[in-house]
Amino acid sequence: MQDLVSGIALGSTYVLLAIGLSMIYGILRIIHVAHAGVYVIGAWAGYLVWRSTGSLLLAVIAGAVAGAVAGVAVLQLVYRPMLDKPRYVPLIASVGVFILVADLMAKPWLLGPNPHQMNVKPPLPALRVGDIGVSGTALFVVLTAALLLVMLWLVFSRTQVGLRWQAIAADRELAGASGIDVNRAVLSNFAFGSALAGAAGVAYAAYTGSVFATMGDVPSYKAFVVVVLGGLGNVWGTVVAGFGLALLETLLIANFGYLLPRDALAFIVLILVLMVRPRGLFGRAVA
Amino acid sequence: MKPTPLIRAAAALALALGLVGCGGDAGSGDDTYTIGLFTPLTGFAAGDGKSSRTAAKLGVDKLNADGGIGGKKLALKVYDDASKPDQAATLVRKMIQQDGVDVVVSGSYSAQTRAAAPIVARADKLMVVGYAVDPSITEAGESIWRVGELASIQGKVGGELVTKNLAAKRVAILQVDNDFGASLVAAFRPYVESKGAQVVYRTKYPLDEKDYRPILSAANKARPDVIYAPGYYNNGADILKQAKELGVTAQIVGVEGYDSPNLIELAGQAADGVIITTELNRDSESDVVQSFITDYEKASGGRPADAVAAEVYDAVIIAGKALDDAGGADTEKLVGALENLDDFSDTTTEITKFDAERNAIRPGLAQVVKNGEFQFYASFDDPAVIEAG
Amino acid sequence: MSRLRVRDVTVRFASLTALSNVRLEVDAGEVVSLVGPNGAGKTTLFNVITGFVQPVAGTVRLDGQRLNGRGSARISRLGVARTFQVARPFPELTVEDNVIVALGRASYPHPLRTFGRARTPARRERAHGLLTEVGLPEPYDRPAGDLPVGHLRLLEVGRALATDPKVLLLDEPAAGLREPEVAQLERVVARLRERGLAVVLVEHNVPLALRAADRVIVLAGGEVIAEGTPDEVRADRTVIEAYLGTANA
Ligand SMILES: Nc1ncnc2c1ncn2[C@@H]1O[C@H](COP(=O)(O)OP(=O)(O)OP(=O)(O)O)[C@@H](O)[C@H]1O
Ligand SMILES: [Mg+2]
């Protein structure tokens, strides 16, 4: 049971990161590796704000804003000129941006090579029921993720932009021919998805209690596993896959130890799932 | 900067072609001896690299201030191995073949030092190892000596601490999945079992793990009195914080890898109460130790000394003594000087002697974190604990 | 001045000249049928007008304003709407949302409103009105992907109209429709013309094409081979040889 709680908290951070990636893949069909760079930038901004204000809530907001700005910058400066090129072109550029961010972050005037502690004062009281405990920070992370997911769901399903995102994801060309300003919708999609990544960075930093320049390395590929598992571009499949993977990791490690490296597990699950369901857990059949 | 693969490849090529560091017999002239230190200045262990560099400088300055080595000055060259064994191997080759280093000092971890040791031994150079614990390092050759405490000894010290001082009957082991963890546990486990304690849970965690909740909660279910958790300060900090969050009440026992101000910085309040086995006794009455602690803090801009710093400092002091006693940089004479060395009074880690395997022997030491500081907890003199075998 | 004016448009795909020096003019309140055998270049002409394909020569103007060189979204917002030969819905959106998502500028006075509710009562009413007008039966709350082919074509027309166009390009809207639906479509086209839209109708159903049109243009091999009133074209020898004779035999 304790492991269930831990898995959900960890899963919240996976989902927040992966869902932005899924949105962006859905709308642009770009393998946006630099998303993990946005995650680190968000964590860094959140860390700075936390250090000067002591507030985790402000830190998450700062992370989201910094994430949105960084994501939009990547879109406008890097991807925009190469959207008509074969898809490996933006992919290579994206990997380049990610490495650049990690290297810059390791500079002493940014995060530097050492981890920094981010032992936030839990913004919520800890819960303890029997021998199951949830720290205030974990609770905050889960609630933040839940809130952001509900918000995203509302935007997606209720608002005009949400409808436009769905239309562009389904058929970009047709969306354009139907009068949708595709560039602007892609921009807001990127801003939203990147804000979630920035918030995820802060949430993960607060949950583990540290911030470091290379914190995006594992997420850079694990988020993809989650996205592919969920069915490429299927935002709600991503939510299920993110929580599922975190729970699986937590339960396996708790019960059997590290039979396999934690991060290899993601790939093993991916391979097994793709063998049975080539389009991911919730991918749709070929149109 | 963490070099990009491309830059790294270019750098490797440049090194291979001998483009960098040519003519680098930096200071190994007639009036200078050069010590070459390899240590991780970048990468996950960069904190230990900085401690090593500061401490080595301090050691060299101290020796020079005391009149140098038989009339000559001592110089220090620092090399960044980025926590990579292959890079450490490349660097010691460069030190020896191009830069004319007289004595190599390891300020790095076991894997890097193990990669470097056979190269140094084959080139017939002296290497004094700071804090790397892997027993096989000194087996590379007669010219490889170690200041740090062997894992096989530190594991026994931990076992003694856990079974005697803490009187634990049920022990859980969470070990970092590398040589450091493996060699400590290889000594710790049989020792505690021989003293009648039971290992109720054991698992390995990866070096870069961030989320220990699953294994902590699994360990906690086994109702241990003590959780022995060999690893480094970043592992230790997360373990301490997350154990507190989960309400784990067992005493957590760490190792030398925890001995860093970073542990306390990263873990904050959660660090209080952790007990570790280590080498630097901050409460020692020795003037050498106290002035080292003061000087180090000054040199590092306020960062307190840690075990890594003390061991690297001692490695430099030992290297200096060897050069002094041998009256030159001839390796055979240096080894002879070390074999006959019996005065360790100016080292900071209470070395009493080198054993036949060229490993330093000293009393075992445990420290506890109280109010955000490492303090004396216990020391161990029993030769059965603190000597190999 | 004509509402839509296509001047000397030439399109090449590698060695193939898909259109050469094609001219087309459509006035407000006029229906022009564009007929011709398979591969004549009809769809390509629509692609040029809507910005999907760039011509190597020639211009496209709407009310004198140049369209070619602009993106398709911009062209759509300037007032040119089209349907696709192979019906192309947003399959996961509901029938209603397919229309709502395309609703013209008029219903979004301010860009920030895009973060507002998509399905306001006014917009839903407008969408339902359009869907009823094109003759698509309810329910409108199921995914568009579930519609039968005939209904998808009607949805295409409804979505095109949602953009408030001045010019409507219909690419074989009657293909796959049943008789009553064709009749309904014909009525829709007539009503749009009444309302002052300029309509270009590409149709393989020649009787329909001739019935619905004010003027007919015959395209073959990328060239305009005949142009005139339905009666003139019906009587044209070259046309009968090139197209009607075989297709209508
Ligand atoms: N994108 C393209 N690339 C290469 N060739 C093309 C392209 N689009 C159309 N063509 C070619 O241009 C010619 C005209 O095609 P188009 O689709 O315009 O004909 P159409 O008159 O619409 O025919 P149909 O009645 O079959 O729909 C054809 O030979 C077609 O193969
Ligand atoms: Mg066609």
How does this model look, in words?
The complex is a heterotrimer of chains A (287), B (389) and C (249). Chain A has one domain. Chain A has helices at 2-28, 35-53, 56-79, 88-105, 136-158, 160-170, 172-177, 182-208, 217-229, 235-256, 262-276; strands at 116-117, 127-129, 132-134, 210-211. The model of chain A has no long low-confidence stretch (mean pLDDT 86). Chain A is built from 11 helices and 4 strands. By secondary structure, chain A is mainly alpha-helical. By secondary structure, chain B is α/β, with parallel strands linked by helices. Chain B starts with a helix and ends with a helix. With 249 residues, chain C is of the alpha/beta class. Chain C has 2 domains: 4-89 and 163-247, Rossmann fold, CATH 3.40.50.300; 91-146, no CATH class. Helix content of chain C is 35%, strand content 24%. The chains are: A mainly alpha (287), B alpha/beta (389), C alpha/beta (249). Chains in contact: A-B, A-C. Chain A binds chain B through residues 2-3, 6-7, 10, 99, 102-103, 106-107, 113-115, 117, 119, 126, 128, 131, 133, 135, 137-138, 207-210, 213-214, 218, 249-251, 253-255, 257-258, 261-262, and chain B through 1-4, 41-44, 46-47, 177, 203-206, 208-211, 213-215, 217-218, 234, 237-238, 241, 245-247, 262, 265-270. The structure holds adenosine-5'-triphosphate and magnesium ion. Adenosine-5'-triphosphate binds at residues 13, 16, 18, 36, 38-44, 85 of chain C.
Produce the secondary structure layout.
The complex is a heterotrimer of chains A (287), B (389) and C (249).
Chain A: H1 2-28, H2 35-53, H3 56-79, H4 88-105, E1 116-117, E2 127-129, E3 132-134, H5 136-158, H6 160-170, H7 172-177, H8 182-208, E4 210-211, H9 217-229, H10 235-256, H11 262-276
Antiparallel strand pairs in A: 1-4, 2-3
Helix pairs in contact in A: 1-5, 1-8, 1-9, 1-10, 2-3, 2-4, 2-8, 3-8, 5-6, 5-8, 6-8, 9-10, 9-11
Chain B: H1 5-16, E1 32-39, H2 46-65, E2 73-80, H3 85-97, E3 103-106, H4 110-122, E4 126-129, E5 144-146, H5 151-165, E6 170-176, H6 179-194, E7 198-205, H7 213-221, E8 226-228, H8 233-246, E9 251-254, H9 261-267, E10 275-278, H10 287-299, H11 307-326, H12 331-339, E11 353-354, E12 360-361, E13 364-370, E14 373-380, H13 383-386
Parallel strand pairs in B: 1-2, 1-3, 3-4, 4-5, 6-7, 6-8, 8-9, 9-10
Antiparallel strand pairs in B: 10-13, 11-12, 13-14
Helix pairs in contact in B: 2-11, 3-4, 5-6, 8-9, 11-12
Chain C: E1 4-13, E2 16-26, E3 31-35, H1 42-49, E4 57-62, E5 65-66, H2 72-78, E6 80-82, H3 95-100, H4 121-133, H5 149-162, E7 167-171, H6 179-194, E8 198-202, H7 206-212, E9 215-220, E10 223-228, H8 230-235, H9 237-247
Parallel strand pairs in C: 3-8, 3-9, 6-7, 7-8
Antiparallel strand pairs in C: 1-2, 1-4, 4-5, 9-10
Helix pairs in contact in C: 4-5
